[in-house]
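step 4 of 6: structure.
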Amino acid sequence: MIIRILRFIFLPAIINLALAQEFIPSWFQQLPEMPDARLAVGYSGKYVNDNQARSDALELARKNMTKQISIRLAFDLEELSDGRLRLLNPSFKEYISGGILQTVTANSVVIDSALTEDGYFILLAYPASEYRLILDAGDKTWGARPDWIENLPNEKGFVFGVGMVARYRSWIRAWYDADEYARFDLGKNLQIKAESVHATQRDNRTTIESVILKQTYDLTLKDVTIVARWFDIENNAYYSLSRAPRQ
Amino acid sequence: MKKLLVFVLLISVALFTVNCGGKKPKAKMDDIPEWYLNPPQAEDAIYQAGDAVKTSMALAKDAADARARDAIARTIELKVTNMMKDFMQQSGLGEDSEALEFTSNVSKQVANTVLRGCMIVKREMKTEGSNYHGYSLAEYNLNSLVQEALDEARKQKALYNEAKANLSFEELEREIEKLKEVGE
């Protein structure tokens, strides 16, 4: 009986840990710098057909490269609070150029790829040219929690953004969303229109604070690169760091 | 013996019920970041903190960030209004009714402010039961604030001049009408 209960409690945790991303290519965690070239990462799940996995990873890498070159982000957040309930309604819209995607597809090259326990990873370079392989690109574990999760990096000439998601069933979807949130977060750090109305109603016994808050931006960003990622295995949380030159 | 068993059972049920119907877990004081309770003070920057509790980590972060930035926006509104008042007094325009009108317009305008370079410099995410409690610290450089105030003042001055120009034009039109009447 006890064994059954223990199995019931621990089995999902063990499965979760077994399926968690433990090993990843080093360039997936920390994107290397390469002079005269842009780098972007693509990934997909592990399929029966490796070619299909590679194809999906390559497609995502090309989209990520296109977003890195230029992306229009429209962010809108509304929060209404009447003292009893709070309603939060964020909206994220992004637009990429079909022309840039075509150029990237025609003029980019895969410089490294990795097939791990979890899926397929691709490192794409643009423009296509002869590149040396990255030396220490072996599989690695995630290591210690990076400081940028709590403290935004302060590097002269650059602006950063952090994306975070947790408790996702699919690691592919989780990284995709964490990357997107990191791009949107960078936009907020550049420029955002903030409007709000705060009203406080007091009587002898109660105080009711009503808030209407609206924050928006619509920006076209260039050179936004996902430069680092970190996976918190214990809490099933995914973090991405984006960086762009300050214009 | 039976009575004892019933008593133990009742106590167990009561404890179970209290536990299930208890309040939502709240942040312990030790878990709250120091910078949330006492935001840093600096001569060249404004700091404000925000927090939010949500079931989704991404939403908790977005809401906490938004509240920290909103606090910055409200601080700026106050500071810009005060700066404009100081400016009016220093330039000897404080008693001028037009200038006073100008000041009140500015304070209305900056309620909707565009924050340039307002960054979330520190962030912490705590778990409280099944919820995430996000804490964010926003930083706004005062150089941006001065620029904001100057832009606003320029905008208002331009509007004021435009309004004055329109008034003169209307006066001119009235004069022309008068001339026409005399000609007839």
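step 5 of 6: annotate
 - Residues 46 and 140 of chain B are 5 Å apart (CA to CA).
 - Residues 142-183 of chain B form the longest helix (42 residues).
step 6 of 6: archive
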